[in-house]
Amino acid sequence: MTNETHEQRTARVRRAPKYGVFIGLGAIVGLLVTVAVTTSFPADPAVGMWGTVGYMSLYGVSAGVVLGAVAAIVADAVSRRGSKLVEVERGAVQPAAEPVETVREATAVENAPSESPVDTDEPRA
């Protein structure tokens, strides 16, 4: 015998975007745009090309992260419009307690001595 409990509710089902993916892709796109724009202009000889790219990437990556987060928020709002209401059933099954004899028999089998001897006088192969 088991004890079963069921509960029915209404829930919304939708596909939600993963914010971390949007933000990460925004940072990568921001870095690539920064490198492309910075290398298209002549470099300052006192700083060098990669020093300028590194400095400008602070702004480009930050802008990419913000744009990625905004894109995730917009995608989340769009996915909420397309959500559907469904009936869901939540259930829990709790097994019945085992009889006392079964528990005692199981522990007796587990604690029984093994059939292979531990101390032998025969040499090992």
Strand order of the largest sheet: 1-2
Shape: elongated
SSE order, one letter for each helix or strand:
EHHEH
The number of distinct β-strands equals: 2
How far the N terminus sits from the C terminus, by CA atoms, comes to 53 Å
Identify low-pLDDT runs.
none
Q: How much helix is in the residues? A: 40-55%
Tally of alpha and pi helices: 3
Structural domains: how many: 1
Task: Set out the fold topology.
Blueprint: E1 2-13, H1 19-39, H2 49-81, E2 84-95, H3 100-110
State the gist of this model.
The protein has about 120 residues and is of the alpha+beta class. The protein is about 50% helix and about 20% strand.
Task: Describe what you observe in this structure.
The protein has 125 residues and is of the alpha+beta class. The protein has one domain (2-110). The chain has three helices and two strands, in the order βααβα. The model has no long low-confidence stretch (mean pLDDT 82).
Question: Which structural traits does this protein have?
Answer:
125 residues; alpha+beta; two-stranded antiparallel sheet; 3 helices; elongated
